[in-house]
């Protein structure tokens, strides 16, 4: 169901403060995780489940570097080792809670849900945080009651900007619809994701920006998207005055240069948390622009949620309903194939008999 | 669970207007259906499930006679054929959505949930709509969290007017109780339902009307009910000044002549939508009467819902709990037997091996 | 899942008044029960399920000593025998509803959920009601969405007063924590429960009372707890001025002498109703004290509910998650073992083939 050996976003760094009660409870890929920040600033992630009788550690208390379960007072180090059981001198052998590797990068907190030995920070999706000096990123978040595979398919094909987002990110005019539904993308399958590059030529400004330009203004839009398992989606989006050409890199005057970073995090099979940002490069920013970009994402992702939640309900009702393939499925199919390949590999590894070679591998890991 | 080859009521005609966004989403016998009205006024019903990836068509847009899915822009004719896929020149073979036969009759919209070849409008239950020139019908609706079989049993035996509806449709006096619990009905089993006729003799006015008459007034009540699968219930109800007789057609002065039309529509196994009306023949109407009839049904069906929802909970908990048969079960048993016979026939037909004879039958159908 | 042959608390006596509509609907150990009070004051408990078609008898009406189902008017004696079916002269053979033995004691209503022949009032847990002449008991109640086994474990080990209840019943100071987490209890396993006796020496007053005493005041606390299946918990709690000793009966001046009676009643596997009281012996009472005791239980049991509901969620998610044993499990383990022994005995009896000996036993029972 979920790739375990992957980095899952647990939210923005400001969600885990030095506050006395700043214990962040999350569900990540079906697992309950509690996050907190040590006095030195490092973030700790532990399974949110006391090894005694499964009390929620997120109802506990921070104590120096440690986390104390407030049911019976067991104290755990950031590594998940029990260091104190009030009333006992000897700490039981198995009194430990599963720790998860954590990395903060670009204002996002990343948790590795699989084998810690495989937790390579190099696998963390590249993104741009709100603290980045060159970009004016604005952040937001949303809960969506849909399986994350539906979100993947949604993000891997932007033709829906002409329909779902006709009033916000896209448009309901014939040019926008024609251009968006005829995108010719260049796909590069990555070991853990998909890069998608394309231009949309000679379109009016998206609906939410159209009032800023003359009616006859046309733009060339450039998309460079990196989609990573489970579902981190980073888009470098640029706009240029349309140069009248149909191919090649746009040569018109640059109008906008923006980044949007989006992490869709499966809680379980039926819902996701969505952490997203959008912002302008500071060279192209002007007062209110980046706030507007964030604002339109709030609107647009509610439009998506409306569609995806109804779709999730129907897919859940009829999981085996026949499907019809469209040209727009190319991106979604490629990205879901990457996901399914990783899922299959993990299942195969889990099912494999323990051969000496494998045992060595496990030890090495 | 549900008879497929039957007409299901999707509500009143005014629920499907020419409004731009007037797409009506319904669950009928477990299936999701979207209804809309074409410019020529005809109502269309399609499965509310895009053949691409199960997006809700009810979140789409009307476009002339067609319905466009607003996820990826697929356009469907009223017959469910895909006529356009933006971005594609060739329409995939299986790109169609299931259409359902629809008929409007007496202000109700009827949808046939089974084999379209069998959709005989002659099977639509006879009723009286709010536009009927002779009757002053008033309409209402209710959601009830109970299986529709419990509603069938409720409607097929009106002895409960003396108990559930003692404050509304019935009465808590000894005469009402005695008369209603000793009803001798004449039953006529129909191919798809049950006709039930009887008189209730020499009773006080029902509680909600009692203030209109002297305390000693007694009436003979005449009931003529047609109950149709799945659960449409039409009652011609008349009242006469009691003639003191125990048998035969009432001969006293007529006091009331009313029709009530009720469609109990299973959404799924756990709830129904209830569309109902009550009104007086215009020859017997006076200001406020028909409004009062509608008003008391709102009260009475909340009384029923209270009982049926608690019953549904208990039946769901203990589906195999032993039952005791009462004399009042005659009507419910007859009507449920009609339902079960149709269900069994459909199951048998579905399970039958495809013999040449059967294949011919299928083609003929 | 539930011991059947046991007394289950259905609430306080004032919940079953002589009111016309005073029909109390309960779930006890998974069974639906309706309770009402006869004109002579005796309380009747019947299965809340009409034998006809499972209508809720709790939506019925009291009629003298009897209960009338208000769906079709069937009337039941306090013994569950049907005595009238309106419209029928002969009452069907199996027209009866299961009666449950009921006893009122100390303002609590007790219902026996198993074989009536085994319903020995001597098995009712000893408690002190709000009408008791010597104690000023105050009552309250709470719903908790947790399995009752988690409540048993919670009540059978009070070391959590130093953690869960640090702001209310316990304290967050080092002395309180040390003393509460090093309790040496004396356990006496009873046929249907567990008696637990211990002292907590030289601790500050519990947090909710601390403002009443000088900061340096220390107390010896005496606990005498009787825990009974399924989960009735009665504590005789006394406080004395600390005598400086570590062992033996406290010899300091008595400061408080209280009783708290608590019945945790499983509705089903996922929730309990909690009826509880706390009060001072009248010789030690002063204005507002007993109200304060009741008040702090409302606070403290919300603290517990917060912990137990999160724990219940996690245990439900991972029922087979490994557990670590702590010294604090001694009480919980003993009490759950008593429960499990009774459960196993009942399962064994239910599964046993009917031998002549057993049949005699059943007859004798």
Walk me through this protein's architecture:
Three copies of one chain form a homotrimer. The two termini of chain A are 23 Å apart. The first copy, chain A, is built from five helices and 18 strands. Chain A has helices at 148-155, 174-180, 289-317, 330-351, 356-364, and strands at residues 7-12, 24-28, 31-37, 43-47, 61-63, 66-68, 75-76, 82-84, 99-100, 102-105, 108-112, 135-144, 186-190, 193-203, 219-228, 232-241, 254-268, 271-281. A seven-stranded antiparallel beta sheet of chain A has the order 12-18-17-16-15-14-13. Chain A has a four-stranded antiparallel beta sheet with strand order 2-3-4-9, with no helix packed on it. With 365 residues, the first copy, chain A, is α+β, with helices and mostly antiparallel strands. Chains A and B meet through helix 3 of A and loops of B.
Oligomer: homotrimer
Mean pLDDT of chain A: 95
Strand order of the largest sheet of chain A: 12-18-17-16-15-14-13
Largest binding interface between chains: A-B, 30 and 25 residues
The major pleated sheet of chain A works out as:
7 strands, antiparallel
Q: Could you tell me the radius of gyration of chain A in angstroms?
A: 23 Å
Helix/strand-derived category of chain A reads: alpha+beta
Shape of chain A: globular
List the total number of helices of chain A.
5
Distance between the termini of chain A: 23 Å
Order of helices and strands of chain A: EEEEEEEEEEEEHHEEEEEEHHH
Number of strands of chain A: 18
């Amino acid at each position: 169901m979920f790739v375990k050996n992957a980095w899952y976003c647990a939210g923005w760094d400001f969600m885990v403060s030095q506050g006395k009660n700043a214990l962040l409870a999350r569900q990540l890929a079906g697992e309950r995780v509690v996050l907190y920040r040590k006095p030195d600033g490092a973030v700790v992630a532990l399974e949110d489940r006391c090894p005694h009788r499964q009390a929620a550690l997120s109802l506990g208390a921070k104590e120096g570097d440690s986390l104390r379960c407030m049911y019976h007072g067991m104290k755990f180090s950031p590594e998940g080792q029990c260091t104190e059981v009030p009333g006992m001198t000897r700490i039981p052998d198995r009194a430990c809670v599963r720790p998860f590797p954590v990395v903060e990068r670009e204002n996002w907190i990343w948790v590795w849900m699989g084998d810690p030995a495989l937790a390579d920070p190099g696998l963390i999706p590249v993104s741009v945080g709100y603290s980045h000096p060159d970009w004016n990123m604005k952040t937001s978040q949303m809960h969506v009651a849909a399986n994350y595979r539906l979100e993947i398919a949604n993000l891997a094909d932007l033709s829906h900007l002409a329909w779902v987002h006709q009033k916000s990110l896209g448009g309901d005019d014939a040019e926008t619809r024609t251009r968006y539904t005829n995108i010719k993308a260049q796909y590069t399958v990555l070991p853990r994701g998909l890069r998608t590059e394309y231009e949309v030529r000679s379109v009016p400004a998206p609906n939410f920006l159209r009032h800023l330009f003359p009616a006859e203004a046309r733009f060339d839009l450039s998309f460079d998207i990196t989609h990573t398992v489970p579902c981190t989606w980073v888009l470098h989006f640029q706009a240029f005055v349309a140069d009248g050409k149909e191919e090649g890199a746009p040569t018109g005057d640059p109008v906008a240069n923006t980044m949007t970073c989006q992490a869709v995090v499966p809680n379980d099979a039926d819902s996701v948390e969505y952490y997203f940002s959008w912002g302008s490069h500071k060279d192209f920013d002007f007062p209110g622009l980046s706030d507007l970009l964030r604002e339109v994402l709030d609107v647009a992702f509610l439009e998506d949620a409306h569609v995806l939640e109804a779709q999730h309900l129907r897919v859940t009702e009829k999981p085996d309903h026949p499907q019809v393939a469209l040209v727009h499925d190319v991106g979604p199919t490629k990205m879901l194939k990457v996901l399914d390949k990783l899922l299959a590999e993990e299942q195969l590894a889990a099912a494999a008999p323990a051969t000496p070679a494998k045992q060595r591998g496990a030890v090495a890991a």
